[in-house]
Write a structure and sequence with these properties.
Helix content is 42%, strand content 22%. By secondary structure, the protein is an alpha+beta fold.
Length: 264
């Protein structure tokens, strides 16, 4: 299956409707994701098929004239003369007028289809805004070369570093034996408050694990934004967000390991 969040982008890309930024992002993603690349090729093949062969309907050349004749015959008043001074004029539509009516009808049909099928932009939900902030913090930590405030692979060094800097004690787990090396920790700011950011590494991929207290209760959920996976869950009065460009399967494995070690 292709990545669900790229389905809409692929449709727009095939139809040439994407802006430059989204088109470039999707092109880069297609080079790295075989399933999305296959979906893109399938969409292209479907588009070519619908535009050719027996699936493409071409109207008869005299269809327009037959419609005009039928309309005049169905409304005799349209052919009666109307007095205009000494001369009589005929109330009938010329070819240019019919052409304009045809364009208007086509635009009306397009508008009707758009109202029915095209999703209108909506204000993002609070969860969506928070996911965007989490992603922005993750990307910013990579771009600014500011992954950690306390660089250490020792959980007994990282955990005490947060004392006095936060109003809670984040759980810090050593997962190096499972292939997720603790790199360190830092302070970050999300949901209008300071939060803990624990950084782990899997090969050349970094994982930011954001933690802060929360009264919400929600089931685990995963989203993907701009090629990054985010997994969110809550546990014992704390909320967790894991963000990385690591493939989803391994990120989910990381999340499971963290969850198994967090005390109830």
């Amino acid at each position: 299956m292709s990545c669900p969040q790229n389905e809409t982008l692929i449709h727009g890309y095939v139809d040439g409707e994407l802006d430059l930024l989204n088109a470039l992002r999707l092109e880069a993603h297609l080079k790295e994701c075989p399933s999305c690349a296959l979906a893109y090729e399938n969409h292209k093949a479907l588009s070519r098929t619908l535009k050719s062969g027996p699936f493409y309907f071409r109207a008869a050349g005299d269809l327009g004239q037959r419609i005009r004749t039928a309309l005049v015959e169905s409304n005799p008043a349209a052919s009666r003369p109307i007095a205009s001074g000494r001369k009589a004029t005929w109330l009938r539509l010329s070819r240019p007028s019919w052409a304009l009516l045809g364009v208007a009808a086509s635009l009306a049909l397009v508008a009707l289809v758009a109202l029915r099928f095209v999703p209108w932009p909506q204000h993002p939900s609070p969860d969506e805004l928070l996911a965007q902030d989490v992603l922005a913090s993750h990307v910013r930590s990579l771009m600014a070369n500011h992954l950690t405030d306390v660089p250490s692979s020792d959980q007994h060094t990282v955990k005490p570093w947060f004392d006095g800097k936060l109003d809670f004690a984040p759980p810090v787990e050593d997962l190096s034996a499972q292939g997720f090396t603790l790199v360190g920790g830092r302070l970050d700011y999300l949901a209008d408050r300071p939060v803990a950011a624990l950084v782990y590494q899997r090969r050349n991929h970094f994982i930011n694990l954001f933690i802060w207290p929360s009264t919400e209760r929600s089931a685990q959920k995963a989203v993907m934004r701009q090629g990054y996976d985010l997994i969110h869950w809550t546990h014992s009065g704390m909320t967790y967000w894991a963000a990385s460009d690591l493939n989803y399967r391994e990120l989910a494995e990381f999340v499971r390991l963290v969850q198994d070690r967090i005390p109830p």
